[in-house]
Amino acid sequence: MIVPSFSISSVERDTGLTKDVLRVWERRYGFPFPIRDANGERSYSSDQVERLRLIKRLMNQGHRPGKLIGLSIEVLMSIVPRSAITKQDKNELESKDIITLLDLIKQHASAGYKQAMQQQLARLGLQRFVQDIVAPLTVLIGRAWENGSLDVFEEHLFSEMTNRVMRMAIDALPDGNRWPRILLTTVSDEQHSLGLLMAESILALEGAECISLGNQLPLLEIGHAACAQHTDIVALSFSTAFPQRQIPGLLKELRNVLKPEVSLWTGGCGIAKLAKIDEILLLPSLDDIVTALAEWRVQHSNNMVLKEVVD
Amino acid sequence: MIVPSFSISSVERDTGLTKDVLRVWERRYGFPFPIRDANGERSYSSDQVERLRLIKRLMNQGHRPGKLIGLSIEVLMSIVPRSAITKQDKNELESKDIITLLDLIKQHASAGYKQAMQQQLARLGLQRFVQDIVAPLTVLIGRAWENGSLDVFEEHLFSEMTNRVMRMAIDALPDGNRWPRILLTTVSDEQHSLGLLMAESILALEGAECISLGNQLPLLEIGHAACAQHTDIVALSFSTAFPQRQIPGLLKELRNVLKPEVSLWTGGCGIAKLAKIDEILLLPSLDDIVTALAEWRVQHSNNMVLKEVVD
DNA sequence: ATCATTATATGTCTAGGACAATATGATTGT
DNA sequence: ACAATCATATTGTCCTAGACATATAATGAT
């Protein structure tokens, strides 16, 4: 039996902790303390990687590494409030449907989940489906992931299935004379695309023209795209999983890259605690999108008239 | 007017060149040579970032950095064979439809593109659509991107739109008694998901049960997922953009993580030049998938009978 | 109790060295 | 002239170890 061991880059890939962090932790805290291979390079055991992943998860919940490192896996596991979802969240939810859907995911019943979702969509219509089902469910899934009561792959499964249902619904919307042109994307390192799809649903329902460029578009490319596509608004989404501290700098950089007349909107759970930034609109909830769009239209109604005349 | 400047991490994000590479190039070749900010930290100009992106692109075409660095932007641009697509590739293509589609992308006519794709899908059926349209078009787009005749965001746009068309088609397939269970995903750092969707189309058409976990699943999670979902086969896709050298190590690592009875299949243009690896099936073309599946079924027909009896 | 200030914790940057893997070029044999 | 082998150059990634800015916690003052 071969004992699997991992190079520092593998660990970086699998844990999301940079090489710099892994080395400095080793220097400071003595953990992780990998053995060295024939070339003097670090070689991490599966156990260490597993422990690092646990630590990373707890850090996302607000714990600090200094307190976590040095604790055994058992102790770390006990910190995680595994049942925290059912306790507080169940009360907040008016509808049991969401719990049912979550359970389907946990049972890996992908076909059943898809069917249930499509049923909900048909029953509620896209707007209500997004606001009452997808959004709270996504939050719930996110929390479950933080808790460790949901595996990463289960979260991926959820994401993939939900993606399909929503995309189909968006595609079914009638096209027509849409305005304004909104470019939707996420920055590099932001994996989660559901927030973007939710935003797209809402915006498309409100009659905006959505140009979805998918995930992880490099900053400068966002600028290029906005220019080439003559977009009125660039909309970004940040999930809770995205490192908060990087966001302000990122947004300012992007603001500099974009033409001044292009509005920059950001949404997603990741920006909830963010301070205001000049010339950037923060839309923490889906409802804000609707009002923001209405306001934008009022402010730009002149141009619109002009545009229509030209047409 | 604020002159935008970029930190070393921004440049890493935007160019895909690691911090280590950026620093060692500066030491060795004297480029990029960023100015230093008040803290002595590197601060790159837009020009340098642009030049780095060009260099990166040329490197993907096989050029070596030592020869490229030191050349001015103008010289670099002249190296790029901008019209290479239309020259050689047009002849290879029996159908003009693909060129038409490519042109639609280049004109950013997303609505028209989507419509044209759906039309092709309806005309050819999913199998032929994937093999005759999507696959060659993807290759073409990839080459155009390497050439620089296509912006990154245009490639994203293509990817996003094509994604939607294919997903819809896959969802429309009837479910039923499917076998074997195949888990589809890509590893971290692999951005491209179209290859996976093409594979899923083919496999689903052949009656396999596809569990798509989307993009960028960490290695260990692939193992967890395979176990939890009782998958028979794990299928990965590598695009040409994925760093070739990392693939063998990655696959061996994954092979170690997976149970021996689970088959590991890999496909995509990224593995075309790869040497054989023990216990890992390489499927360079979409046709190989069909034969591989047939073979697998023959080899595992006993288990299947057993399974059906249990049911 | 609330706010301002200091101290600790933590991530990210820095420099420059080393080495393994890959690619190129030279030499030799057929 | 062409193919194969070996030497050399190129290039990415790892290494150590130090510094500092920023974020968080702890202290003290109002």
Mean pLDDT metric of chain A:
89
Number of strands of chain A: 8
Order the strands across the largest sheet of chain A as they lie in space. 5-4-6-7-8
The largest contact between protein chains, plus residue counts on each side, is: A-B, 50 and 50 residues
Question: How is the quaternary structure best described?
Answer: homodimer
Shape of chain A: globular
**Order of SSEs of chain A:** EHHEEHHHHHHHHEHEHEHEEHH
Put simply, the count of helices of chain A is 15
Based on CA atoms alone, the radius of gyration of chain A comes out at 22 Å
How many domains would you count in the coordinates of chain A?
3
Q: Distance N terminus to C terminus of chain A?
A: 72 Å
CATH fold naming of the largest domain in chain A: Rossmann fold
- Please state roughly what percent of the residues of chain A sit in beta strands, choosing from under 5%, 5-15%, 15-25%, 25-35%, 35-45% or over 45%: 5-15%
Structural class of chain A: alpha/beta
Classified in CATH, the superfamily of the largest domain in chain A is Cobalamin-binding domain
CATH architecture of the largest domain in chain A: 3-Layer(aba) Sandwich
The CATH class of the largest domain in chain A is identified as Alpha Beta
Helix content of chain A: 55-70%
**Unreliable sequence segments of chain A:** none
Most strands sheet of chain A: 5 strands, parallel
Features:
homodimer; Multidrug-efflux Transporter Regulator, Chain: A, Domain 2; Rossmann fold; three-stranded antiparallel sheet; 8 strands; DNA-binding
